[in-house]
Amino acid sequence: MTPGSIAAAEARAASAAIAVWVKTPGHTPAKTRLAKVIGTATAEVFHRLAVDAVREVVDDATRLAPGLLAPYWAVAERDVAAHACWSGFPVVAQGEGALGDRLAHVYELLEPRHRAVLFIGADSPQLAPAALVHAATLLVDASGPEYVLGPAMDGGFYLFGGKGPLPRAAWTSVTYSAATTMAELIAALEAIGRVQLLAPGFDVDTVDELLLLRDELAADTCKTGAARRALCDWLATLALSTRYSPRTGSR
How remote is the C-alpha of 205 from its chain's centroid? Predict the structure, then answer.
């Protein structure tokens, strides 16, 4: 075995990939559903601040459990110019097709390199670093579940984690952006291995969820991390007082 292959084997044994799913500002519109209510410019500002906050959360998680997590950006665009906008983590392209195809593509790309694979979005900046460490620890434990899911309040999921090969059909058979998304994914995964649910949470695609994020950050996360404080301070300046109807799932 060559030194390079030894290093790769050691990395796989010691780490879980965590891919943060993002769109590149200026290349692909972000938070389009939210933009219909708060405006495109404001939604873009939120996306940029949320990306910085999530990067900070992931960085904190890697420091909390050294060697456990290997972060990546999962970037929507294929062009090199878009990839050059992302720094700090290695970049992987989401690939082509519908969301199920892209989830399958990134999982298939990272699974052989790592002991487990986690997916989160850039729209859940309220996640605690300890929650990411907990999810990864469950997966790398030989006696732990094959899959972990963070249930979102809209019927989707804010976090996915898995280990071992996963048939592409498990991803592509799911109806995304629906109230049944998580239930369908659980059904597909339970046919293959054990699924453990994490604490309920949310991602931000509606004004209601933006208000919930503002409240959660103000109560807790603002106390730690410059990027999360910046997001919290910006949210405090928004005139958001109207409650809107809950959405269907984004994943």
Answer: 14
pLDDT for 28-75, tens place per residue?
888 888 989 899 999 999 999 999 999 999 999 999 999 999 999 999
pLDDT over threshold 90, residue 190: yes
Beginning with the edge strand found earlier in the chain, give each strand of the sheet holding 195-197 in spatial order. 91-93, 69-75, 16-22, 116-121, 157-162, 147-151, 195-197
Q: How far apart are CA 17 and CA 115, in angstroms?
A: 8
Q: Residue 31 and residue 111: Cα distance in Å, rounded?
A: 28
Q: What are the structural domain ranges in the chain?
A: 3-237
Q: How many residues does the chain have?
A: 251
- For residue 220, the tally of other CB atoms under 10 A from its CB is 13
Which has the minimum average pLDDT: 44-53, 143-152, 201-210, 218-227?
Answer: 218-227
DSSP 156-204: SEEEEEE-S---HHHHHTS--SSTTHHHHHHHHHHTTS-EEE---B---
Q: Which fold has domain 3-237?
A: Spore Coat Polysaccharide Biosynthesis Protein SpsA; Chain A (3.90.550)
At residue 42, what is the residue type? T
